[in-house]
Amino acid sequence: MKFYYVYILRCSDNSLYTGITNDLERRVNEHNDGKLPDAYTFKRRPVVLEWYQDFTEPNQAIYFEKKLKKWSKAKKEALIKGDFDMIETLAECRNATHHKYKP
């Protein structure tokens, strides 16, 4: 069975990078080896694997990676820590027009 991995790397500047691969160890090594000079991680090496999830369906992995890329850094940090309550809190709408805030 083939696996696909969505992963989060912590870069040397403390930023987070989200990606997808079918070979996690190889891909992390490629980031650290600086294979692509135009890549986000190239000037932010070394990188450390902070979190990953495996998928058996590539479309599910692609969907989840796209979703994660839109998350705030705080929400990604909560995922890394496994703090699912915080993820839910950070996902709440804080808009003044939200039904929770209407009198």
From TrEMBL:
Give the PROSITE patterns listed for this entry.
GIY_YIG
Pfam families this protein is in? GIY-YIG
Q: Which SUPFAM superfamilies match?
A: GIY-YIG endonuclease (SSF82771)
> What sequence ranges are listed for the domain GIY-YIG?
2-78
Q: Which InterPro entries match?
A: GIY-YIG_endonuc (IPR000305), GIY-YIG_endonuc_sf (IPR035901), UPF0213_domain (IPR050190)
| PANTHER family the record matches | UPF0213 PROTEIN YHBQ
Q: Which family does it belong to?
A: Belongs to the UPF0213 family.
Write the protein's name.
GIY-YIG nuclease family protein
Organism name? Flavobacterium solisilvae
The major lineage groups are: Bacteria, Pseudomonadati, Bacteroidota, Flavobacteriia, Flavobacteriales
